Structure formats: structure tokens, C-alpha cells
Amino acid sequence: MPTKIIMLILLLLFGNGFCGDARAVQRAITEQTFIYKVEPTEQAPEQFEDAVRWSRKKTDLGAVSLSGGDYWMVSAVKVNRGDQRWVINVSNSIIESVDYWLIGDDNSTQYLHSGYYAPYEFLFDYGRSVEMRYGVDYWLVAKVSSRYFSSQPKLAVQDFETHKRQTDIYALMIISCLGGLLFIALYNGLIYVSIRDKAFLYYGCYVFCYLAGWALTFHLPAHLFDFHGLQLHHLFFISLPIFNILFYKHFLQLPETSPRLWRLSLLLLWLCILALPTSIFLLSHTAIIASVLIMLWITLAMVCGNICLLKGFYPARYFLLGFSCLLLPAVLILPGNLGLTPDFFDNAELATLIGGTADALLLSFALAYKIRLLSEERERHIETLEVARKNARTDKLTGLPNRFAFDEAMYEMRPQKDNVQSSKYLVIVTLEGLAQLTKRLGHREVDSLIYGVSEALKQLTVTMLPEVKVVELYRIAEGNFVIVCSPTALDSAREKVAEIQSGYLVERYSEVSIHLGFSANQDISDPRQWLRLAEQDLYNRKSEIRRALHSQSLQMQSDLEI
Q1: Distance between CA atoms of 481 and 496, rounded to whole angstroms?
Q2: H or E element: which one contains 336?
Q3: Spatial separation of the C-alpha atoms in residues 113 and 97, rounded to whole Å
Q4: Alpha carbon separation from 395 to 3, 404, 452 (Å, rounded)
Q5: Which DSSP state fits 168?
Q6: 156 pLDDT above the threshold of 60
Q7: Domain GGDEF, which positions (predicted)?
Q8: Which of 373, 391, 427, 517 could bridge across to 537 with cysteines, CB 3.0–4.6 Å?
């Protein structure tokens, strides 16, 4: 949808240029414009009859040389309305100096000066207001002087109100586009500062060069700060391919996606770097050089975007849409800038600025889409890591947290300075006789036994009241479990172990026994000490049972002997 709106604006703008010409012809009849070379010390004619004789001695060139020079632009004009206020204007190119003479057959002569170094009368325009009367024939003579012409200049006459309204609309468009470019450049610069992704840095530099180039083209620094730097205009435009190639290197991941296209892009990048001094030392030819490099860049960028899209890089869609908005005016304008074709419409600079702003906006969408993809990929990676971490902390047989999870929990339970440590018990539960059971029934039956014991111990975490809380249950070895519980749950844990021994084990696995040992965390500075104390208590309890069984065996022997 945004792309359709942008295309519609461009088409309306082009159409507006044609319609503007039609209205001008209806209100002011302007004959063909003749272009003559200015000879040294030559002056403009002073009288209407002198202009006729003067023009007959001249040879019409048909066009100016884009490499610059001094030229006369001459046209016969007659107004067909009673309005007295009109505007004469040379447009469609950057011109350093424009001198207007309006010579009437009523012996009136009006002289006005405009150009790059002159102040505005109309925003972003070389036009000057004049008085013209109905029924009077005029010669309009304009002397244009510039070190280069960005395109073929056009001489036109328009009524004052129409011209003022049109230039105000164009000024609104220009300021809006430049403001949008400034916002996009700053926004991407701030994103680079926060995430350090070079794609945003190079894109911000690209948009800034585009902004600076068009601000100079529309003479904003000249009229706001009295700064005139004709040599800098195309310095920024030649820099556009440099930063854009560096941008799409990172954005499209071009060296990995298509090494051959990256080598071509790198070659074009170095050509642009070598061409930068031409904007200063070859000023008369820099517009032609910039036009050639920009056309090569746009073509190569479109090829790179299509290749990357075909290889499955979906953010390239916005990349291609952006360059399509830049390509539309470029295809119509750049051949005219090179002198290969006539200009297809007026306001070429404004059309290109709007197309470039649309390109910048859509490339911002491409970067935002890439950020979304990276964010989704990061979330998937985090989820994968979380699943892997959970699997690494979980015993596959019982589903209980394993020894790794237990060590983590012990580390988190270590006493902190100035923190009140809650009272807890660590209960270690162990199964004896698993080796004999394995020999008799095999590993599968042992696994079934361990799983059954774990399910019985899990009931502690379900049936306990809130005030009788089992903190956690772990399986830390083949036949070893750990229960971390509150003091009030200790008796329940002991009862559950006795229940497992007397019920589950005696009935099904008589050669297996279950034992427990426990330790409180009072005066414990190291969690490992807590576990060692519980193991020591377990060992003591098992020793007591063995001594009791041994005493019982001796007693039975003595009874038999008696």
C-alpha cells in the first residue's frame, strides 16, 4: 500500500509538470526558444527592433553544452490576458547566473538578475516577476552562465498567481522530503549507536549524503547561511553509491550470497571513490560523471536485490521496492542529464528527490523487517537454549531435576552476607541392592524400580500443606535422591521412605532396601558441607542398621545353639 501511494504521487507530479506547461501556453503565447552562444564583450539588445536584427545574425545551437558556458536564450512572448503581473523563469538546471531582459515593442525594457548566488523571489526557483501588458509583443532574452548544467535549461512565462501557488506547493514537497530524510538519517544513526550494526551506520550515511546533495541542489545552505559550494553538490551524489554498496553488503550479506556480484560492487565502489575529486577539479564534467556512476549503481543494486530475493532473503523485497522508486525517475531523467534524450517532463529534480525519499523510506522498512527477523531468530535461539538447558537439568528416566540442577540449586542457596537464612533440611535417599537386582532381572526392571520410587517421592510435593513445604526433589545418581524441605516436612519425608520400604520394596523387590540421612543447614557456610553432613548421617544410620542386623544374627545363632 505505501508503494502504491508513492507511485501515485510520482505520477501526479509528472502529470502536473505537463499540465503546468499547457496552462502556461494558454495564458502566455511563447514562441520557440532559440539558444545562442555568448560572444566575448557581447551585450543584450536594447530595443525591440534591435533584438530582431541581432537574433538574425546568430546561429541557433538548439541546446546548451552540459559542460557549461555562457548562452543566450531568446523567445518571442505575447500575453493573451489582461493580467499585468507575470513571471519569467529559467528552470530545469542549476545555473550560477541568470540575467533577464524583457523588451517590448512599446519601447519598454525590464532587466532582472537571478541565479545560484542571487536571493529568492520564489522559493527554490530562479523566477522573477515582471509586468506585461495585453496586446504588446515582447522579446524575452535570458543570459545563462554556469560552469556546468545539470540538464537542458528551459525558458518559460507564467502568470504570477499560478507560478506562486505552484512554487509554494513544490517548496512544501521539498521541505517535507528533506525533513523526512533528516529524520531517517538521525534515526538510523541512533539505532547504530545502540546495536552497533554497520548496516544502519552505512545506511544513515547514505541518507545523509542524499539529504546534503539535494539541500545544496535546492540552494538551502546558500539562502539560509549564505554558503555557496558548487563543487560540493556532486561530491555528495557520487558518495551515494559508496555508502549504499557498503550498506547492502551487510544488509544483503552479499559476499556470502553472491561473491561475484560483491566483486562487481566493490569495483564500482572504488570507481566512485576515484571519481570524488572530479567534483572539484573537473567541475564542468562532474554532472555527467555522476549520472553515469549513479545509473550503474542503481542497475547493479537491482540485480543484487533480485539475486538475493531468489535465494530466499525476503527483506530484499523492500530493497527492490525502494530502488524501483529511485529507478522510475532515474530512467526518465538521467538520459536527459547525459544529453542523450530530451527531458520528458519539468521538475526533474523534485521528481528525483521524491523518488529518493521513497527509496530511503522503503529501505528503512527493509531494515526494520530485518530487525524483526533477527528478533524472531533470537527468540527461537533463546527458546532452543532454554529447552536444551531444561533437558540438561532433567533426568530422562524420572523427569526429576538431575545432579546438574541440584548443584545449581545448592549454589543459589549459599548464604549471603546480611541475609537471614531460612531453616531447611537436606534429606538424601539411597537404594541398596540394585546391583544384585540387575544381575537377577536386568536393567529394565531396575529402571522400573527407580521410576516407581521417584513417583512415590513426588507425592511429597503434591500432598504437603503450604506450611509443610517440600522445596525440591532431585535424582543425583542411579539410586540416590535428594529432598530439600522445611523442618516441618522432615517427618513426612521419613514416613514416605518407610512406606516405600515396607510396601513397595518388600512386596516386589525384597533384596532392595531404602535408606535416608539428613542434615540441617544451620551454621553451614558451604552447600557441599551440607551434602557431606547428610551423607555422613546416612552412613551412620546404615551402620546402625547393619550393627542391629548383626546383633540380631548373633542372637539367633545363640538361640539355636541353646
Answers
A1: 13
A2: helix 316-337
A3: 8
A4: 55, 10, 14
A5: H
A6: yes
A7: 422-554
A8: 517
Q: Is residue 20 over pLDDT 90?
A: no
Return the DSSP state at 124: T
Q: Which residue type is seen at 456?
A: A
Q: Which three cell numbers stand for residue 279?
A: 567534483
114 has pLDDT over 90: yes
68 to each of 152, 231, 286, how far by Cα in Å?
11, 14, 11
| Confidence label for 499 from pLDDT (cuts 50, 70 and 90) | confident
- The amino acid present at 329, given as its one-letter code, is P
Mean pLDDT of all residues in 40-49 = 87
pLDDT at 1 over 50: no
In angstroms, rounded to a whole number, what is the distance separating the alpha carbons of residues 277 and 271? 11
> Looking at this protein, which amino acid is placed at residue 442?
G
Confidence of residue 38 (pLDDT cuts 50, 70, 90): very high
Q: Say whether pLDDT at 470 is over 70.
A: no
Confidence band for 544, pLDDT divided at 50, 70 and 90: confident
Site of grid cell 545432579? 403
| Verdict on whether the full-model pTM lies above 0.70 | no
Rounded distance, CA 123 to CA 107, Å? 31
Return the exposure string of 445-475: e unless at least 16 CB atoms fall within 10 Å of the residue's CB, then b: ebeebbebbbebbeebeeebeeebebbbbbb
Smallest Cα–Cα separation from 484: which of 475, 474, 492? 474
Under DSSP, the state recorded for 487 is G
pLDDT above 70: percentage of residues in the chain: 88
CA dist 438 to 362, 434, 445, 501, Å?
69, 6, 7, 18
How do 480-485 and 137-146 pair as beta strands? unpaired
In the block, residue with C-alpha cell 551434602 = 531
Please tell me the distance from the alpha carbon of residue 196 to that of residue 189, in angstroms, as a whole number: 10
Report the range of poorest mean pLDDT among 50-64, 280-294, 402-416, 482-496: 402-416
Long-range contacts of 333-340 (CB under 8 A, 24+ apart): 333/151, 334/291, 334/294, 334/295, 336/151, 336/152, 337/66, 337/150, 337/151, 337/287, 337/288, 337/291, 338/66, 338/288, 338/291, 338/292, 339/63, 339/66, 339/152, 339/288
